[in-house]
Protein 1
Amino acid sequence: MAENYISPMIPVWVNCRADIGTYAHTRTVEMFLESVALSSLGAIDARMANLRSSDDPVNLFDLSDVEELRVATLSALCLSLQAIWEQQLRGYLSGCAEELVADRPGLAEKLKNNDWDFVKRQFFELRGLPFAHFKAHRDLDLLQLLGNYCRHGEGRASKAIRSDFPEFCTHVPASSALFPGATGTPERVDIVIRADDLKRFAGAIVSFWTEAEWIYNNSINRKHESTVKAIRKREEELKLAEINTILS
């Protein structure tokens, strides 16, 4: 039996064909995290553990090289995760634009190339919701900045991270010279990516697409009773989350 129930706790929008395929995005991100990112880091960590347990002093030099490899791998994995997410969102919005604003034929192409702020503005125009509505928006903004930082190094992105996301930065105190005639290093604030950060960002992407799926389901005009049941259960989860937020 079909019902017209619409939850007042979940937004609605005009559903598009592009909404139907987003269920696969969460699986892609989860598989990348488990099968690529964590698997690669696990292999590097195992190699480092073997080198640390060795009595051969030569292995200390190898350990230094592998530690540098781990840092570079984390940067590359973060950039890859950001690229997957960005391609997903830009592709989704391009599909929405082709269906909803056919009178703006150039918009789909602009969504593939213009900057992140443009993408977020178009998200609001096409879906009627600000990007900031989504619970994980702050982490997704940070992921975007980190992607730029991993790709280009120091610049506007790194300045924004240090300014807007200080909790993501590590303070490194100044160090004195190790021997006469040498110079020490001044204090600095390093941007450090860790394995747990990859889990955090993958979770943020999954959270975004999960919320989008709830909005899609709530926006269906005639819902199957199983969908209505799932939405009512989701309402209870949201109410409980609100109570916990107030009490915390």
Protein 2
Amino acid sequence: MEKEQVVFLANGIEQSNLTLFDIKKLDTTVKNFLPGFQKGKEAIAGFEITKRDNHVSYLFAFIHTGDNYYLVIYSPNKKALAELKNIDMVDGNPYIIWKYNPAKRDGKNQDRKDYFTKNFGPAIRQILIPKSSSDIETFIGELFALCQNRLEADHLGEETN
């Protein structure tokens, strides 16, 4: 992602008045690190975002190393669920590209991929980067769905949060 895109998204989340989600800004250290997250990667911002209707929360960390800027979404126990950094332009609009690619060492990864595509569609997702703050809630909703789908496929259909 470009630095401007990351800054826009972080500012948009922080300043949004959302109806479906509660947002809590995470504190950074003096040197702009998020305590307990990826070491050596400076934070632009971090948020705990909770969906009001089911109380599911994810941690959104906007981080960078050098010129590499990206969003990492974590579970509440700080397990990385999605690292979003690849951007493609589609019809002049920037989309984050994410691919479901399970890498567990139990021999069931193809089953997970099959479950994902059968139940949620293509393993490669394109998520439109919002152009205005009014699109932030839709963007967050899509990221929540992506994480929920990933977790469900990772557990081959078991109930997950």
Protein 3
Amino acid sequence: MIVEADTKAPRRSIVTLEFGNEVPPRSFAGLIPAHRAEDRLVIDPLAFPGMGRRVVRIAEQAQFWADRINRTVARPQAVLAYCSAASLAEHIVAALKRSDVRLILFDPEYPDRQAPMSLFRELADSSGGTGATEQIPDLTGLPADELLRQAGAFLVELLERNAPDLDRTIAEELTTGQRAWLSFVLATSPAPIGVCRPDHVFLSDSSTWRASRDAAVHHIGGPPTELFRSPSVTTELSEILGAGATCN
């Protein structure tokens, strides 16, 4: 979902990638300077149309969102993302084809090829009723779309097992968010990084950054959620926004 800026605002937009159904939620809303709040465009990566039904290549996702951003009145000034949205943010900035868009990442993570199965097990376990872990099917090695199909079917069956009277259509609807999240991880786990190098990286105590990727690194410390309520981050963002980018 995109929330467009006030059409009368002369300032450029600040694009933020945020997972809307995350618990606990993380949002850049409290970090954007108050006088720039109406310039913020919010993208939920899992809101890509049909995400839960197929695995969408990261380049296709990025182009879709870049087209949406370019249709807004305010020209983009910066793209901010956190955690596993880092790869999509890189691709969006590259797809925007503008040399003056800053890329700012918070605790960036780049899922490896084991991430989809790890997430699937986590989703199944959190749904309850799986019993022993070995009851969760091992889908390692399957093509991405087939893994999504089989994992989604298992999650639906698991829900029906726990609620026998539940209609199949409702069960599929209730697992849409889980399937969308798995689809996103399947798309990002093999996606190449370095498409566009970040200008700034903010890190909590739980994250590290490869020094070989040239970026200004800000070690804030504390838990990941602290990054989104730190006055020092707000101050630094106020100083950062507006400068040129280094997208290759």
